[in-house]
Amino acid sequence: KEMNLPFTPVDLTFHKLVYEVLASTGADKIRLLNEVSGTFRAGRMCALMGSSGAGKTTLLDVIAMRKTSGDIEGEIRLNGHLQERTSFLRCSGYVEQFDVQQPELTVRETVEFCARLRLDTKDPMIGDDAGKLRYAAHVLQIMELTDIQNLQVGSYSEGGLSFEQRKRLAKLVKADTGRTVCATIHQPSSAVFEMFDDLLLLQKGGNVVFFGELGKDSAKLIDYFESRGANKIKFGENPASWMLSVFSGPSADEQVNWAGVYKASHQCKDSLKLISTIKDSADEGNRIQYDEIYVTTFQERMRLMIQRLYRIYKRSPAYNLARIMIAIFYSFIIGSVFLKSGGRRDAWKENDITAVISTMFFSLIVIGITSISMAVPVTQQIRDVFYKHRASGMVSHTSLSWALFFSETPYICMISLLFGIVYYAAVGLFHTGEQFGLFWVFFTLNVAIYSYFGQAFICLVKDTPTAGALVGALIGYNIFFSGLIVKPQYFVGPFQLGYWTAPGRFAFEGLVVTQFHENDTPVLANYLSPYFFYLNCTMDEVPEDCQGTISDYVNYFFGGRFTIDNFWVDVGALLAYMCLAKIATEFALWKFNYVNT
Fold first, then answer.
1. Distances from the Cα of 290 to the Cαs of 70, 120, 275, 472, 491, in angstroms?
2. Angle CA(555)–CA(559)–CA(562) in degrees, nearest 5?
3. Which of 298, 351, 503, 555 is most buried by its number of CB atoms within 10 A?
């Protein structure tokens, strides 16, 4: 049945809006909007038109409070009251030209998520969560999306909804009938153009060329331009196309300053008078006032965001299934080197135990690289959609930050467990359940740090290539300072800073010492090797008699720097790096916006 939510009609006025940005070549400023004034009236549809670069999108971004850079001057008022962010976001919706939606979710899930975060249960027409879902179903029907409500949105590159269907979905999650509407349109048909009541026409440089009523069959618009010297419109010609050709087409008279003509017209004077009248007639009865930017509680927003990301992750086999398969593949490849020895051994050769230590390091790096490189593009897509939700006052950065954490963690634990089982069995390290548990803990912490720093990097910077540079820097830092390529005992002077700050070092040390501490399994030294002399063996001894233990070998290999005494230091450092990554993610989501600038 019909569901019409009560609302306060809004006359939105903007007076002498100026928007300037710094030029990319120097300190000069470029003016993109030049004293733009007008009114979007309640119950009327205003068309916003102009040539490319005229400032149409810029004007809507400024009015919708989406600009995060540049200098803005002028006044924006709602029913005569100055625009205030909290109340404006609660009472408005903004559909961008290329609106971003999450491809893994269905049309219904996308709409219901927005409905739950935008509709107030205090409204008697809504009442509770079931009321929000009923309203979501209602607008799906209005927008004729019921037949595709269970289809995933998809992406342009991989298929999914058509552009026209995406546009209807974007409007559905933002708008409703009976409101004040302004829409940017490009070369509309006569029938579409006739649906609008008013027109705001901009010229390149952000100058107003015309603002006023269109009139029946666009009679007022046609009379305005023809009475000021424009070529007569031909019979049957589209008024919208004719109008654009008057001042920006091939036949346009470049000698006519249409912006100046408008400023001298009675239409401009009438517009400014209407703005003044609305401002002077403002009263508390028509003020749009909300105390809170969010409709729902923090707990509810958190729950909805976590639920949303769980669905996204579940429907992302290219991400989650792929990295699980990669982990199993590498665990088998790395572990297969030791299969010929038949599992657990009674004694190790020096080369073999060196290989085990090296493969532990290699495992940390390879799975870490896989985790961080795959996390970046997935998080970027989620981040870009979040920017839209935050700008609409639906969710905060904290909700997404924690949702990313809770959604990623189960897969991190699963990857580490599957890798550990295959690798552990192939190498023959099984001794006690406690040792395997500690192997899993340190491996999990390592994967988590790489994954969470991948999320942090793409939230801190604009695009994947820049994040890739940070990813490469972290990987290189870990490889060099973890203690295998260069042994810990050789880090002296300023190089000790890298050794004590590389997160990979703490994971590597934790993995090694928990597996080999007080391990008395014999290690046979290579004849005349440094380890041979470390054991004080002589050249006259039979090589098989020169042996130490795995614990001795680890102490020799790392120069006594890797010890069980550092266990809690390793755990604490890894947890601290995880916290640092999450703090960086939350800060970046709070501070930056790389979609609307």
1. 27, 12, 24, 46, 60
2. 60
3. 503
Distance CA 33, CA 496 (A): 55
154-155 and 45-50 beta bridge pairing: unpaired
**142 φ/ψ angles, rounded to the nearest 5 degrees:** -60, -40
Helix (H/G/I), strand (E/B), else coil: 551:
helix
Residue type at 453? F
Residue type, 566: N
Task: Tell me which long-range contacts 215-222 makes (C-beta under 8 A, separation of at least 24).
Answer: 218/193, 218/194, 218/243
pLDDT in tens, 549-587: 999 999 999 999 999 999 999 999 999 999 999 999 999
- Report the alpha-carbon distance of residue 322 to residue 313 in Å, rounded: 12
- SS3 for 243-279, per residue? HHHHHHCCCCCCCCCHHHHHHCCHHHHHHHHHHHHHH
Provide CB contacts within 8 A for 324, sequence distance 6+: 411, 414, 415, 418
Helix 163-172 and helix 107-118: axis angle, to 10°? Answer: 20
Question: What is the CA 83 to chain-centroid distance, rounded?
Answer: 28
Q: Would you call 285 exposed, middle or buried from its count of C-beta atoms within 10 A (0-12, 13-18, 19+)?
A: exposed
- In Å, what is the CA distance from 282 to each residue of 7, 75, 182, 254, 268? 17, 15, 22, 42, 22
pTM above 0.85, yes or no: yes
Q: How far is CA 128 from CA 112, 113, 161, 398, 548, in A?
A: 13, 14, 30, 25, 71
542 CB neighbour count, 10 Å cutoff: 8
How many Cβ atoms are within 10 Å of 98's Cβ, its own excluded?
9
Cβ-based burial of 278 (10 A; exposed 0-12, middle 13-18, buried ≥19): buried
pLDDT per position as a tens digit, 345-394? 678 889 989 999 999 999 999 999 999 999 999 999 999 999 999 999 99
Question: Mean pLDDT for the chain?
Answer: 90
What lies within 8 Å, CB to CB, of 356 at 6+ separation is: 338, 348, 427, 429
- The continuous run of DSSP H or E covering 168 comes out as helix 163-172
Q: pLDDT tens, 44-65?
A: 999 999 988 899 999 999 999 9
Distance CA 145, CA 137 (A): 10
Identify whether the C-beta of residue 105 lies closer than 8 Å to the C-beta of residue 312.
Answer: yes
